[in-house]
Write a structure and sequence with these properties.
The chain has 91 residues and is an alpha+beta fold. It contains three helices and six strands; from the N terminus they run ββββαββαα. The strands form two sheets. A four-stranded antiparallel β-sheet has the order 4-1-5-6, with helices on one face. Strands 2-3 form a two-stranded antiparallel sheet. A hairpin with a 2-residue loop joins β5 and β6.
């Protein structure tokens, strides 16, 4: 049986034919479980917690740290000590 958690933790009443007490209701009907998921309720089903609806849009920002990593230095994209040596030897 799935446990349905209401967004309002203090809600006591009936919603979509499910009785809630202090924001918690239960059902084993798949169509109701899907309805609650789509409408922003948290559903705990067999230890698995699922929440759908009212999602925040994905954050498309790249990480602020763009400094070269170890792989970049190995591939010649980071600091290159050899180029410093060549400059010093040209005098």
């Amino acid at each position: 049986m799935a446990k349905i958690l209401c967004p309002n933790k203090q809600y006591t009443g009936v919603s979509a034919t499910i009785a809630f007490v202090n924001g918690v209701g239960e059902t084993d009907k798949p169509y109701l479980i899907e309805w609650f998921k789509k409408n922003g309720y948290t559903v705990e089903d067999g230890g698995e917690t699922k929440r759908r609806g009212r999602k925040k849009p994905p954050d498309d920002k790249k990480p602020a740290d763009e400094s070269p990593g170890v792989d970049d230095e190995v591939n010649g994209e980071g600091d290159d000590d050899e180029s410093d040596e060549e400059t010093e030897n040209q005098d």
